[in-house]
Amino acid sequence: MFSGIVEEAATVVAVTADGGNVRLRVRCSFAGELTIDQSVAHNGVCLTVVEINPDDSTYDVVAIAETLQRSNLGDLHPGDLVNLERSMVMNGRLDGHIVQGHVDCTAVCDQIEDVDGSRYFRFTYDIPAEMRRRGYLTVEKGSVTVNGVSLTVCDSTPTSFRVAIIPYTMEHTNFCRIAVGTRVNLEFDILGKYIAALQQA
């Protein structure tokens, strides 16, 4: 379980194919604090630590084929930034919202607008109508996770939404590298999914 509050935009140092899977080696400041089997969200995708290399502050995770199909992790190359968050400590504050680390789909940035020191990013996505009925959607002033970042939705439509990104978030996440055409990971709000399922039941 995560909160969508990114700890670090870390650097991908190696990407290795392993059959249908991909092994990622990531360098971050807290690599030495990790343990094997620990869960870490990478651009919002929960992955398990399989190797730790404390001498060079790196660790390895493996993304399976299904994860690569549902997310943008297959787009990563050495030198790219990936947003990291370790799992929540249950006695702490929930500063973002409840995030599972299960990416629902990808979206594409199609507009960036500068507004008084912040930036608005618009993302479009393609979700079948049946999935929308099951809560895979955004709502005005609701929460959505973009590349693992918990954000508030504005200008929501059935296939798009905007988010406002403050300078701090630009500096401390990989939003600093998102441009028009960039593909990102989305996780819709789990509470909305449960409410939709209860209504259908």
Furnish the topology, listing elements before pairings.
Layout: E1 8-18, E2 21-27, E3 39-42, E4 45-53, E5 58-63, H1 65-70, E6 81-86, E7 105-115, E8 118-124, H2 129-133, E9 143-146, E10 149-152, E11 154-157, E12 160-165, H3 167-172, E13 183-188, H4 190-200
Antiparallel strand pairs: 1-2, 1-6, 2-5, 3-4, 3-6, 4-5, 7-8, 7-13, 8-12, 9-10, 9-13, 11-12
In words, what does this structure look like?
- The chain is mainly β and 201 residues long.
- It contains four helices and 13 strands.
- The chain has helices spanning 65-70, 129-133, 167-172, 190-200, and strands at 8-18, 21-27, 39-42, 45-53, 58-63, 81-86, 105-115, 118-124, 143-146, 149-152, 154-157, 160-165, 183-188.
- Strands 10-9-13-7-8-12-11 form a seven-stranded antiparallel β-sheet. A six-stranded antiparallel barrel has the order 1-2-5-4-3-6.
- The chain is globular, with a radius of gyration of 17 Å.
- 32% of the residues are buried.
- The mean pLDDT is 95.
